[in-house]
Amino acid sequence: MIKFLDLAAQYESLKTEIDSAIANVIQDTAFIGGKYVKKFEQEFADYIGAKFCIGVANGTDALEIAIEAAQFPPGSEIIVPGNSFIASSEAITRCGHKVVFADVDHGCYTLTAETVRSKITDRTKAIIAVHIYGHPCDMNALLEICNEGGLILIEDCAQAHGAQYMKQSVGTFGHFAAFSFYPGKNLGAYGDAGALTTQDEELATRSRKIANHGRITKYDHEFEGRNSRLDGLQAAILSAKLPHLESWTQHRIKIANYYLVQLADIEGLILPERKPWARQVYHLFVVRSNRRDELKNYLAERGIETGVHYPIALPKLNAYSYLGVPDNDAFYNQTDTALLSLPIGEHIDMDMAGEVVSVVRNFFASHDEK
């Protein structure tokens, strides 16, 4: 069996460090807030080059807190890609604003400046740039649009820990950035966890207050906030994992490069594109095939797990039926039934990668013969 994700193997490789981190938190009873949260916030801010990092309960909360902290007028329009997890869009509507879907690049699946421009109205207040699958958006192009129109730029970095645009880490370009540390992420906790980063001290303070019942000091509530805090156990686990993230990322890139070379000549299989300015961290290695389901089943029958991210484009979900009929010309609507994620991660060695390549090639060779 070649697993799509193997968190048990990752734990075994870090067992001493993880167990010690958990034991320390329990010994110090530092469960909510405290030194372990502060330590991770500083470490993660240093890792990506952000001035401020606020630990929160999960990545979705990070997006909602960013939108709330931006203080948009009710019913503002916020542009988001049509190809993402629903957290990217539901954060908008749950904060009382209108989601506007824009198309994505045909090779790396991130927002394009051209489609963003086509969606801007006098009610547009922000863009959420989702660094989908670990590939950064074209930040200069999106920043130019934001500067022209006085728009807020929010980065959704849930799948992009360590990704870079022109050698600068994602999470440091926008007014806000939201990170998820869901267990399956490149840097994952052992439960829900997230963070919000920003370069602006005023926005950081406001965000921290929102996440902690509208306060900084105990019982001094300046306004009604919410309860969204990174707990000490998850923070300590993330601190134990963070020093390994770079080597894990390098390994992901190595496996991805192998796939890109070994699968390049297969007719009927479209590989992901990596822009020359991008450090793509390959949270997912996503290919496209009109025979997606057949290929997925063929791999499964031979012990290779795969994933589908995401089988239904956001505008086609029942949750957004109130917006009307989705744009059939949109790229994401045409490709959602073709996307397939091959196994990638620090648990995939070169022999496993070779087996994946061999089975994929056999699938297309056998189908070509028919």
Largest sheet: 7 strands, mixed
Q: Total number of β-strand segments?
A: 12
Radius of gyration: 21 Å
Strand order in the largest sheet: 1-9-8-5-4-2-3
Describe this structure in words.
The protein is of the alpha/beta class and 370 residues long. The protein has 13 helices and twelve strands. It has a seven-stranded mixed beta sheet with strand order 1-9-8-5-4-2-3, sandwiched between helices. A three-stranded antiparallel beta sheet has the order 7-6-10, with no helix packed on it. The longest helix is centred in the last third of the chain and has 20 residues, at 350-369. The protein is globular and about 70 Å long.
Question: What's the SSE blueprint?
Answer:
Elements: H1 7-13, H2 15-28, H3 35-48, E1 52-56, H4 59-70, E2 77-81, H5 87-94, E3 98-102, H6 113-119, E4 124-130, H7 139-149, E5 152-156, E6 164-165, E7 168-169, E8 176-180, E9 194-198, H8 201-211, H9 232-241, H10 245-262, E10 278-279, E11 285-288, H11 292-301, H12 331-335, E12 339-342, H13 350-369
Parallel strand pairs: 2-3, 2-4, 4-5, 5-8
Antiparallel strand pairs: 1-9, 6-7, 6-10, 8-9, 11-12
